[in-house]
Amino acid sequence: MTEESSARSASTRETFVRIGEAVQLVQASSDQIASSVQEIADGAGQTKQALGDIAAVAEESSAGAEEVSASTEQTSASTEEIAASAQQLAHTAEELQNVVSQFKLAA
User: What helix, strand, coil percent values describe the chain, rounded to 5?
Assistant: First the structure.
């Protein structure tokens, strides 16, 4: 019986050693998973920051585009006014030429 008891004791010791090794492997895997999760979280934070930066740039670009659009509209309106004034001046010049042509100078 002592031999049998000794064998069982050795087998139990071996089982506990393997369980301890398995627990260490599980702990190492858990540490690696935790590290990976932290890296993912850090990456997500960086991505969030980058998206915030992109949104800010997009807002600035939008504001700039609105300013350009307003300036273009103003320039277009001014150009139309200048064109109308030029037509008015051309008409006035034609009328003046007609009036001046009625006068004859005696030589």
Answer: 95, 0, 5
23: left (phi over 0), alpha (psi -120 to 50) or beta: alpha
Mean pLDDT, residues 55-75: 95
Strands (DSSP E) contained in the chain are none
Give the integer Cα–Cα distance in Å for 79 and 85.
Answer: 10
pLDDT at 91 over 90: yes
Read off the tokens for 102: 């009625």
Please tell me which residue, 45 or 5, carries the higher pLDDT value.
45
In angstroms, the CA 23 to CA 15 distance is 12
Largest CA-CA distance found in the chain, in angstroms, rounded = 158
